[in-house]
Amino acid sequence: MIAPRYWFYCVLTFVMAGASLSSAQNPTAKQTDPYGPILLSEDGSWCWFQDERALLIDDKVIFTGVTSAGHNTVTEWELSTQQITSHVLTEGTLPPDDHNVAALMLRPDGKILTAYAGHSIDSLVRYRSTTRPYDIRAWEEESVVPTNGRVCYSNLYYLEDEDKTYNFFRGNENNPHYLVSEDYGDSWVVGGRLFEFPGRSYLKYASDGKSRIHFITTDGHPRHFNNNIYHGYLENGQAYRSDGTLVGPLSTTENSSLKPSDFTLVYDGDLETRTDVSWTSDIQLDDRGMPFFVFSVTKDPITRGETRNTALGGFDHRYHYAEWNGREWVASEVAYAGSRLYPGENEYTGLISLHPTNKSVFYFSSDVHPVSGEPLLVNGSQRYEIFRAERREAGEPWYFSPVTFGSSEDNIRPIVLADPDKEVVLWLSGRYTTYRDYRLKVYGKILPNPDTRTSDQGKKITFLISKDPDNYEADLTVPYFSMKLAKENGYQTEVILGQGERTAFHLPDLERIKNSDLLVLFLRRVALSPEQLGLIKKHLQEGKPVLGIRTANHAFSVREEIAPGYEDWWDFVPEILGHENKGYGPATVKTTVAYAKKPGKRLLEGLSPHPWKSDGNLYLIGDSLDPKAEVLLNGSSSGQSNAIAYTRKAGKSRVFYTSLGYPTDFTHPQFLQLLKNAIRWTLD
Fold first, then answer.
1. Could you tell me the superkingdom of the organism this chain comes from (predicted)?
2. Cα 604-610-613 angle, rounded to 5 deg
3. CB of 87 within 8 A of CB of 74?
4. How many whole angstroms separate alpha carbon 179 and alpha carbon 191?
5. Which residues contact 98 (CB under 8 A, 6 or more apart)?
6. Which residues contact 282 (CB under 8 A, 6 or more apart)?
7. Which residue has the higher pLDDT, 36 or 292?
8. pTM higher than 0.70 for the full model?
9. Does the pLDDT value for residue 493 go beyond 60?
10. What is the pLDDT of residue 12?
11. How confident is the model at residue 32, as a pLDDT?
């Protein structure tokens, strides 16, 4: 079976033979870094119970939004030119409310269908399609489908085997209903009711595009229910549990015999106990058609139905991941999600979103460290940041790397798109006071598929890192990068995270570096025992290579009084790295990266010729660099510039150093490619 969102890409590839995409207009300001983040809209928002809210069509991303004034919009982002075009669907007919955001669907004829509804303000489902294929600039007039109850949300799916389009929405008595179209959404009829029960369930849907629509559902709103989460699917007019057991027919009337608890229980929130209250977030299908999904769990909910004393809970959310292996559901907690977005909606998280074709990748927003749960503070305020999560394969640990970091505003509600060449993440940034009161910008970031050339699988790389507030989250980014090296390039990798005070630091099991071919250092001002420093020095005496990242240029330069039995090594920087640490540029100013040599060859192979930026400040070395060093990259910031990546020899050891390594650098493809090239060079 075909994965749900990737199916649209496949259809596009077929129907576009000989056709051309229309060109974008209204270009944004020039962007020097094609790998973003890129500002796509000054004013937009979305809820998460409408799908699809974004489509990736060849070289274009099309997404919907609701402005702070309540205007429904559709925006096109042309990836190669970074041009932006936006079209207003509604202006003044719906109030400001992110629940009004539209769903999108690429029709088989290439036109784009959209459907939307007010947030339970009337009984009308609104819809329209573009007048031309793949072109958001011109739309048919808005049409409506009256229903017999107040409506909210839209979820659009075309099933090839039936040649029908479905729109699942919340309708009469807050139960899920659906519409059916036999002309790709030009006209609709009421199909029936999915559930009938005295509750307000929250569903997320995914389709294989052929014959089957999957869903996950809660019992109700987490404010009012100690929710469980269930899974089922619809096929040929019947409803089934996860294992294919028939539940009953899909209703074609205003009544239904189905309810959430008829389907497969995946997460047991214990309906009788007010703890571990769950809420659905996202669902996708893998390349075999097997469902996998993510959801949030509130560990400290307030009393059911409470609307006044909202300060008493909602500060500890967790993200969970579940996958169906063909026999059973396997679910586990994967990350700390942090605190609620605002009082009153205590179960609102920053949100988690799945990669549509790769079940080993997801993105999420959190205002705490995803592993430890420690608050993410910027100038004393807790901020939501976007993270990318990845694992080597099913059943293995997840690793995390920041997409945003140290932000002055919150970053929430990511959406992930992908095709065979790239993945794209969209998110919202700004103020979110309530779902009716917000001021948010839309950002996007492109990540091309990684370099997966297999290297010598006998080579072992050991990373030595330390964790402290000034070491740029190396405890997150380095394990993430280490995992990717093993997964994508076949290296044997190990991360050793040090322990203890910096004046008496210990690297557990450091004797294992005797078998390492390369040492990578991301340590900050630590003193080691003579035995441990001796092991590192012996590695160099044997002519083995070293790679230093950012704070490695003061790795063993300890300013405080060192504990008895420990040593510093100030000469490591001039003797091994080949320069002197001259301090830093302004902490809040980014670094513009420029090439010292023409990209495309040797250590700059695979890098784009475009200049790019690092969110980190410039490390200064003055004119102290070894004149025999080969400079690869220069950095500039606040009127100052110097080398930021270079190679040299220390004795017989090959040395690579870069002062890049800010947390968001590890989700920048240029930086990742540079590190991979440097590793190949050091090991050559």
1. Bacteria
2. 90
3. yes
4. 5
5. 45, 46, 47, 66, 435, 436, 438
6. 48, 204, 293, 294, 352, 353, 354, 362
7. 292
8. yes
9. yes
10. 38
11. 65
Whether the predicted pLDDT of 28 surpasses 50? no
Where are the domains positioned within the chain? 6-448, 460-683
CA angle 442, 446, 452 (to 5 degrees): 155
Query: Do the beta carbons of residue 677 and residue 604 sit within 8 Å?
Result: yes
Centre a 10 Å sphere on the Cβ of residue 203 and count the other Cβ atoms it contains: 22
- Among 4-13, 42-51, 579-588, the minimum mean pLDDT is found in 4-13
Task: Give the pLDDT of residue 451.
Answer: 82
Look at the chain and count its residues. 684
Residue in the structure block whose two tokens are 């955001």? 101
Query: What type of residue is 460?
Result: K
Which of 8-22, 512-526, 626-640 has the weakest average pLDDT?
8-22
Q: Where are the beta strands (DSSP E) in 361-421?
A: 361-366, 377-378, 381-382, 385-390, 399-402, 410-419
The bridge status of strand 546-549 relative to strand 377-378 is: unpaired
Instruction: Read off the pLDDT of each residue in 216-237 and give the average, rounded to a whole number.
Output: 97
Distance CA 86, CA 76 (A): 6
- Find where tokens 């030595």 sit: 464
Q: Kindly state which CATH superfamily the domain 460-683 is placed in.
A: Class I glutamine amidotransferase (GATase) domain (3.40.50.880)
Asked if the 6-448 domain carries CATH number 1.10.10.10, the reply is no
- For residue 2, give both structure tokens: 């075909």
Q: Is the pLDDT of residue 20 over 50?
A: no
**CB atoms near residue 301 (< 10 Å):** 24
Q: How many of the other CB atoms lie within 10 Å of CB of 457?
A: 11
